[in-house]
Amino acid sequence: MPVFPDPDAPLLPSSDIVFKEMRYLDKITTSYLQMFMTICGMLLIVTFLPRQGWSETRTLEDMAGRSVTLSGPVERIVTTFKPATLSVFALGLQGKIVGIDSSAKHDRLFKAMLPTVADLPGVGTKSRGINFETLVSLSPDLVILYAQKDGIELAQRLAVMKIPSIIILPESFASVKTSLQIIAQATGVTERATEVSTLMDDILQKIEKKTNRISYDNRKTGYFVSPRGLFSTATGNMLQDDMFNRAGIINVAHDLRGYFQDISPEQFVAWNPDLVILSQHLHQQIVKRLNNPALKMVNAVAQKTVYRFPCDLAPWDFPSPLAVLGTLWLAHKSYPELFQDLDIKKEVDDFHFHLFGKTLSEMHGKLNDRVYW
Amino acid sequence: MKTTKPLIISLVVILVLLFLSLLVIGRFEISVSDITAMINALFSGKAVTGELVSKQLVFCWIRLPRCLMAILVGMGLSVSGAVYQALFRNPLVSPDILGVAAGCTFGAALGLVLPGDNFSLIYILSLIFGLLAVAMTVGIARLISVKPVIVLVLAGMVILSFFNALLMVLKYFSDPYDELPSIVFWIMGSLSRVTWNDILIIGPVVGVGLIFFLLLRFRLNILSLGDVQSKSLGINPSSFRLILIVTSSFIVALTVATCGQICWIGLIIPHMARTLVGPDHKRMLPVTALLGAIFLLAADGAARSISAAEIPVGIITALTGAPVFAFLLYKNRGSGWV
Known about the structure:
Chain A is of the alpha/beta class.
């Protein structure tokens, strides 16, 4: 058993051994490098890719209080009512829509943004019902549903089919922003939702900076005419009440609760509003009822301060980011002396540009608030 | 023979008192002294001033026509119901059995969807389709001409379903944010749309219709015995039935065109009258008319006065009518009228 080093052994390793060692070290280094690169890559994926909405399993709570789990990217969206469609367009996700509420197919704003919108499959509407088979046949990654009527039931049925759905309930500016955030969380565009919320807040702050100066006693009273008819109005639970309030107008029907409520013509006269604001959707024939001599003594009718929400491209009296423009127009129309420095057309164009990438004029939209009766 | 005079006088007194009290009840404050001042001004030829101007306008252009219309529609629908029940010898028949209401509603919805601003288009189309529905029902029944009464009711069901289907088609293709809400609002019965023009149209028709029915009350009694008995008593049932159907349908069509569908009046009021004075149309028809007027006047008064939001009158008529009808069914069990 040798105790000492072999005297015949070479003092230096042969070149073969050196090369072998070097290859071995190189191999180890390359492996570590590869491993390091892989870890860095994974870290990058973990850090950035979930924000693009494709890989992470995420759980969120929708506005019906349901816990919704989504895994994988959201590439196929179906909307079932107009406020949801408007929100999806505002978030720039229109390219991912594979099915749309049928009423939105011929909407001028959506056509201007997405010329192929009319070719998209219509899944029905909230008021007329959703065709469940059409909805499922589109294999959506995400369905955006309403909270009223059969919305929750549809969500439960979709869950059985392993189709994720979220329920939104935009009925005030706060809930419009929450709706945007929930859709954004589901689709991975939270930054865009924050941008849109900031855009909305900027306009609202601009309005409230001026209208907050009006004391309660000096505020004008207003009556909103719903699309149902002249004697159907928005209650204190509705977005229109929020819009009136921020525009410095007291909604005469603020104390009523629920959705659109019918009132008697006598109540309308008793309220005697300074302004009557018609929904953009109100049928023109119904306005003729203002010719009743008893209604002519109502302040707004007598002073001809009866206006219709003005945009012919999309409704501004509707739960969507565009409602801030409705509020701006309301404030401008009610207190022109406070908003003398405001170029409403420019504000509208700017907002549309930031929201949709095109100005209202570029989308051939016009503003007209005149009402004839 | 039991006299109905005291009952009729009592009902007239109740109707007048209710009418007068409802003239001072509503969301807009108008007191008895305001009305006295208005009447004084009217007779003295002086113009009213101050707050009284607005009160006078509300009183004359909103409240008074609405109360009058409630009386007219209540009378019209209840008497039409009584006539239908006699003609079809069926206590469960109501004025919309021949598809009149369905036709009217479809016409009104069509008027709302069609382009143009002419408000009377809704009214005219409603009336035209209401009468067209009756014509189609009667036409089908005459074409078949076997067991005319049953066939007429069946034909009415066919036309009712047909116009309901057309209405659904119209609702399906209408814009859910623009046209659909106004259609739904129109269908829901309400007297809030009433104007003096409506009174001027419906007033004479209901008035003449009621007189006509009262004149034919003996023939109604005979017709309710059946065709064989009618013929043996010298009456041509077909022609009388046609005249009575067209008249009552015309009244129903006009009321639906103005106020939408108001349920229960045409069904339960004749039964209430029959319970009070028996089946003889001579006594029953005036009682039916008065009870119908009182019932709708009270229901509409509650609908417009209880809260700031107007309660749909259909809810009140159904909520009060259904228990009354159930009670009548119980009270008259075994009496042969059901």
